[in-house]
Design a protein that fits this description.
The structure is a single chain. This protein is of the alpha/beta class. It folds into 2 domains: 217 residues, 3-Layer(aba) Sandwich (Rossmann fold), CATH 3.40.50; 163 residues, Glycogen Phosphorylase B (Rossmann fold). 42% of the residues lie in helices and 16% in strands. It has an 8-stranded mixed beta sheet, sandwiched between helices. A 6-stranded parallel beta sheet has the order 11-10-9-12-13-14, with helices on both faces. Helix 3 packs parallel to helix 4. It is globular. The model has no long low-confidence stretch (mean pLDDT 96). Bound molecules: uridine-5'-diphosphate. The site of uridine-5'-diphosphate has 18 residues, from helix 2 and helix 11.
Length: 401
């Protein structure tokens, strides 16, 4: 099949270059690569966000990345991109009108890409699938008036859910949220993200350490719960906590939230046991995960969560907030433990108990790797997605015939 992936703000090239990449960049890059390995032709459409980008690049795994002119050729925060999605969609429609560029199926990533894809698909009669990656209703519940999303986001997301040919949800919690929003269950297929189990392995080098270690990783934003992990360390007196993440290529001290975390550690009296190592290139991450006795992830909410899955693939048990995608990836008591979000005392006591029980951790480590490899491999995800693509493309050609 010729598959078009639309990812308006998250370019897979950022993930391949190892700079400033969030989960969506990595997901799109790894999905595109796997689909190519399965023999598909893949083109990723992302917004031109710098003037010197080529129109089209072939990324090393063999997929094309097309930079779509929509809005200023400069960085624009994703919450401000909505006015450009009409133009993005019109550009795609024109492109896909040429037989040589016309895909068999479109897979949009994030709701704004869904809008652009639907605009284009209406004019070209192409089937569209959509992965939200994050839902506005969840964000609004947690951020309230500080939510910077466009005010109509939830309405657009509901509309998209019922108009695209299939929604690809990443976990059971998302399915529940979507059905509560009014998206029909028959519209939804569940295909979790994959993890690169060739990169994240238990075997290999580990960063040196001198005492028991818990590790947490991700973008330094309040909703990831680093402040709770730091406070939890009061209950874990003999261990250190490594925090991986920060502004790419710059020290953590240059990040306002990073500075706040340093203050949280000082106030909690644990500053001497918190190591904020900043952003780590993806290729270096396995060495960091392997160095830890436990990985901890304590978000308020988490649409999917790649970092715990990466740690599991690297053989590290995960203590996670019982929210979102983590309810599926972490099996409580088997591959790690689930704890309530925003409860540092509970988290701290759980970490202390597990750190004291080496046998239990060894069992969890083996189960974690096994689960990551057997349930979250990219070949499996690509196979399931291909079935979804074929089903919507088949339905469309049947309808036309
Ligand atoms: N990551 C990285 N270097 C860092 C911190 C994170 O490469 O210093 C990667 C990490 O490996 C993961 C992604 O960034 O693949 C974050 O994805 P996740 O789903 O955990 O969170 P998101 O950023 O999408 O909310």
């Amino acid at each position: 099949m010729h598959i078009a992936l639309v990812s308006e703000h998250a370019s897979p090239l950022a993930a391949l270059g190892g700079v400033d990449a969030g989960g969506q960049n990595i997901h799109v890059a790894e999905l595109a690569a796997e689909l190519v390995r399965c023999g598909h032709r893949v083109t990723v459409y992302t917004r031109r966000d710098a003037p010197d980008l080529p129109d089209r690049v072939t990324a090393r795994p063999g997929f094309a990345v097309v930079h779509v002119p929509a809005g200023p050729a400069d960085h624009v925060p994703k919450d401000d991109l909505l006015p450009y999605m009409g133009g993005f969609g019109a550009w795609l429609a024109e492109r896909w009108a040429a037989a040589s560029e016309r895909p068999d199926v479109v897979h949009a990533h994030f709701w704004m890409s869904g809008l652009a894809a639907l605009t284009a698909a209406r004019r070209t009669d192409l089937p569209v699938t959509l992965t939200y990656h994050a839902l506005g209703s969840v964000k609004r519940r947690h951020h309230g008036t500080r939510d910077t999303s466009p005010p109509d986001r939830v309405g657009y997301e509901r509309m998209l859910g019922n108009r695209v040919d299939r929604v690809v949800a990443q976990c059971r919690d998302e399915v529940e949220e979507l059905t509560r929003m009014g998206v029909a269950r028959r519209q939804i297929a569940v295909v979790p993200s994959g993890v690169d189990s060739g990169l994240f392995t238990p075997e290999g080098q580990a960063v040196a350490r001198t005492c028991p270690r818990v590790l947490t990783a991700g973008r330094l934003v309040p909703r990831k719960g680093f402040q709770d992990v730091i406070r939890a360390m009061r209950w874990v007196p003999d261990a250190e906590c490594v925090i991986v993440g920060g502004p790419p290529g710059r020290p953590v001290a240059e990040d306002p939230f990073g500075r706040r975390l340093v203050e949280v550690a000082r106030l909690a009296g644990v500053a001497d046991r918190i190591r904020m190592v900043g952003a780590v290139p993806r290729a270096e991450l396995p060495r960091w995960y392997r160095s830890a006795d436990l990985m901890v992830t304590a978000p308020w909410y988490e649409p999917f969560g790649l970092t715990p899955l990466e740690a599991m693939a690297a053989g590290v048990p995960v203590v996670a907030s019982a929210v979102g995608g983590l309810l599926d990836t972490v099996v409580d008591g088997i591959t790690g433990e689930l704890v309530p979000p925003r409860d540092p005392a509970h988290l701290g006591r759980t970490l202390r108990r597990l750190l004291a029980d080496r046998e239990r951790r060894l069992g969890m480590s083996a189960a974690a790797t096994d689960r990551a490899r057997s349930r979250y491999g990219w070949p499996r995800a690509a196979e399931q997605l291909t079935a979804v693509y074929r089903s919507v493309a088949g339905a469309m050609s049947g309808a036309v015939a």
